Structures are given as C-alpha cells and as structure tokens.
Amino acid sequence: MVAMNINDHNEGLLIIGLMSGTSLDGLDVAYCRFDSPRHFQLLAAHTFDYPEEWRQRLASLDRASALEYAQTDVDLGHYFGKRVNEFRTMYPGSVDLIASHGHTVFHQPQCLLTSQIGDGDAIAAETRIPVAFNFRSLDVALGGQGAPLVPIGDQLLFSDYESCLNLGGISNISFQNEGSRMAFDISPCNMALNYLAGKRGLSYDCDGLMASEGVVDVDLLERLNNLGYYALEAPKTLGKEWFLSDFLPQLEQHDGKVEDKLRTVVEHIAIQIGRVVERRYLGSMIVTGGGALNPLLMKQIRYYAQNCKVVIPDRSIVEYKEAIIFALLGYLRVTGQVNTLTSVTGAACDSIGGCLSGLVGETIN
C-alpha cells in the first residue's frame, strides 16, 4: 500500500473497530468502510473468545499491583494486535485505521479517572497500522462521564429509531431529547447474569434457560430496585466498582438458589429499562448486545415497555454494533469531527476524543 496521510484521505476509510466489554465475552472485531459519518458498510466481523487465563487476568486486574496493571496494558495491546492480524488472514483487505475501545478496568469519573487498557502503541507495532484509542479520557478530563460513547453512532447511523438500547455487561440507552442526544447507563446486565451463571460453572446463561427455571425473589427484587443509583438524574454511568460495592453485596447477602437470583436479576433489568422507556415516552427502540439474544430477558423488557415498539435487528448488528461504532469514532477522530457529546456525558464541551498511535503518513502495509 502506498504511503498516505489519513487526514487527507477522501475516498472512504477502511477501519477495523475493536470492542472488549465488561462481560468478558471476548474481543469483537468489525471491518467497516465509511464513506461519510452516516454511511457505512460492515464488510466482515468476528469475535475472538478470551482464553480462560485472560478472563481471570482481566477480572482480577483491579486488585493487582501497579506493575502488573502496566504489564497487562502492554500485553493486552499485543494480544489485540495479534488477533487483528489473525482476523486479516481470515478477511484480507486494506486497512487505513484501527479504532480500539480497549478494556475498562477503572471508571470513576467523579475522580476524573477512567482507564481502558490495551496499549495502542502495542497494537500499532503488531499490525503496522495506525491506531486510535483512549477515547474516554479527554471527556473525563473535561468533567464528563466519559461514557457512554456509542450514542453519537446511534444518532448518526441508527436514527430511524427513537432510541437505542444496548444489553452488554451494562445496559445503556440513548435517544433524542429536545434536539440533543441523551444517553446513560441504566443497570448492570450481562455483568450480573454472567456472574451468577459462573456459580454453576458456566460463562453465561444460554437463552436464559437457568433463569427460566427460577422464580422471582420479591425481597431481593425490592432491594435491587431501591439502590441509590436509580434515583440519580442523567448524565450518569456505571462501572465495575459500583457493581462490586453496591449490587453484588445484595446478591451475596441474600440466601436462595442461583436460578432464583438469575430470574430476579432478569426481572430487575427489565423493570429498570421499562421505567426509562415509559418515563421518556419512547415509541420505538432497537436492541443490540448479547442480552438481545436472551429470550426471557427480551420477553420481560417487552412486558415492561408495552407502549414501545421493540426491534431486534440483524444478528450482525446485534453482536457488532459497538465495534462498528468505535470504528466510526475512529473515522470522526482522524477526520477532525466531534465524536463525544456533552449532551450525553455532561462534559464542559463537545470534544474529539482519542489518541493516535503509529504509522500515520507512513507505509502501513
């Protein structure tokens, strides 16, 4: 490939978006072409499941030493780069940019702190492709929540729907509000469901079958619904820290079968989503993320959001929407366009977030 400057590339950009979520399902890779901020093609996509050693390493990193944290940041970047190279042997083609969300370890915007590991320099070194990464830090430095970042993609790419709900490790929603995009985290989702499934030696509750065998524990449900986060006004975000300090103790301190806890958490998630949808009078909603493939969860969401048309799109969008949108964030970053909205995060202003690493202006293939 001839040398080029990405910022002067006017014929569409070929971008690989990388997403690693808090549920530790794996690394989502989406290979996209962007001809404008509103027009994209998903050319190929794949998920690389994390090996068990990586699951354990990432799950415990918030309790590790500073040295181990720094080493894992670098190691994960090289791991991401190797997976991109593997992906490119499966789906050959030119790539102008990699846009990586990284993997969130700490998220405490009230302390002006957010941390996504998976070193962009290491990705660039492995792939010999420019990398955009660290998309959240500038917004947090500007006093924002640093999340969610996906809503600008919802606004640009999925505007046919009044709202966009993502059911990943955390459930979050975005929608238009008086001419501006608004978004926030609603509740834990797969983070909590996968934790409980792990009590039975499973990585997740396939099709919600275990939860379907349980019954709702009314006392536990009330305790979960009364957690203080749900009374806060947006902008607001959730992280693993809140899950560990506020949500998990409710599960651990409460006796009962795993199946009943799973069923109760499904009900809790659906109730919280339903409250938001009804309060905001949302008439249509596209649902993506792993939770969209959970029939029981979707049934309950539809029950509590009866006045909203709930749409599950093509499976490629369900599974890879966030990776696609991080490719978009990379596109916006290198073309000098806003990719983080103050209306969503509460920051002092809109911003163009993301660091650039590697070989911009060099021969990259």
Structural class: alpha/beta
Quaternary organisation: single chain
Report strand %: 15-25%
Helix content: 25-40%
The N- to C-terminal Cα distance equals 5 Å
The gyration radius over C-alpha positions equals 20 Å
Globally, the shape reads: globular
Q: What count of helical segments does DSSP give?
A: 13
Mean pLDDT: 93
**How are the strands of the biggest sheet laid out side by side?**
3-2-1-4-7-13
β-strand number? 13
Order of helices and strands: EEEHHEEEHEHHEEEHHHHHEHEHHE
Any low-confidence stretches, pLDDT <50, length ≥5? 1-10
Largest sheet: 6 strands, mixed
Keywords:
39% helix, alpha/beta, six-stranded mixed beta sheet
Structure report:
The strands form 3 sheets. The protein has a 6-stranded mixed beta sheet with strand order 3-2-1-4-7-13. It has a 5-stranded mixed beta sheet with strand order 10-9-8-11-12. A two-stranded antiparallel ribbon has the order 5-6. The chain is an alpha/beta fold. The N and C termini lie close together (5 Å). α2 (66-90) runs parallel beside α3 (120-127), α6 runs antiparallel to α10 and α8 packs across α10 (258-279). The model is unreliable at 1-10 (pLDDT under 50). The protein has 13 helices and 13 strands. The protein has helices spanning 52-59, 66-90, 120-127, 137-141, 151-157, 190-198, 209-212, 218-225, 240-252, 258-279, 295-304, 315-334, 342-345, and strands at residues 13-20, 26-36, 39-49, 97-100, 103-108, 113-117, 131-133, 163-167, 170-177, 180-188, 284-288, 309-311, 355-357. 49% of the residues are buried. Helix content is 39%, strand content 22%.
